[in-house]
Amino acid sequence: MQPLLIVPGWGGSGPSHWQTYWEYELPHATRLEVPDWHAPRRSDWLRALDDAIRRAPAPPIVIAHSLGCVALATWAAVSPRPVRGALLVAPADVDRSDVPLFLREFAPVPRTRLPFFARLIASDDDPYATLPRARQIASDWGADLTVLHRAGHINVASGFGPWREGQAWLAEIAALPAARATDAAVP
Questions:
Q1: Alpha helix positions (H), the chain
Q2: 66-101: per-residue pLDDT in tens?
């Protein structure tokens, strides 16, 4: 049994978002719960992540989108709890000058290498993180990078529903030997 933890971004990934489809389709998937998806507080998200990972029956694979990617990287920089791996999709650049004020609490984007294997999926036309910035984030985090062409923010507004292609990357992470998954980010 491989636990999966779905970590939405700002707004909580609504009913037509690929994360919601996956939550109901994938065995052992649970969704992170925070007090308010629309008025995010960094401390609430980090506490919720820590609680969810602590409660998992085994180190989970985390499936994060947008602000959820930043929250996971922030948490990983300070927590000793193990994570099996992560699929990080369209991380939001909370350091950009036009980031909404209520998201600035999540800045700066952590530059710490993740202590577990991660695949970062970015788009070459994401309005919330330029491709050069996504490349820098992937490099800082030690994540393998996959770039999608003209995929926007890889969400419902960009035409993504169930997103079966993304499940193939998740399956690759799940297939990694446990030692490779937890040691992959160590230089």
A1: 18-25, 42-55, 67-76, 131-141, 164-175, 178-183
A2: 999 999 999 999 999 999 999 999 999 999 999 999
3-state DSSP assignment of residue 33? coil
Q: Strand 29-31 and strand 61-65: pairing? A: unpaired
Work out the number of other CB atoms within 10 angstroms of the CB of residue 11.
Answer: 13
Give dist(CA 52, CA 32) in Å, integer: 7
Would you say 93 and 128 are in contact if contact means Cβ atoms under 8 Å apart? Answer: yes
Other CB atoms within a 10 A radius of the CB of residue 143 amount to 27
Q: How far is residue 12 from each of residues 19, 66, 89, 141, 167, measured CA to CA in Å?
A: 9, 10, 14, 23, 19
Q: For the chain, what are the domain ranges? A: 4-183
Using alpha carbons, list the distances in angstroms from residue 132 to 7, 9, 23, 86, 123.
24, 21, 31, 21, 10
- Return the CATH fold of 4-183: Rossmann fold (3.40.50)
Crossing angle of the two packed helices 18-25 and 164-175, in degrees rounded to 10: 60
Q: What residue has token string 């978002």? A: 17
What's the pTM value of the predicted model, to 2 decimals? 0.94
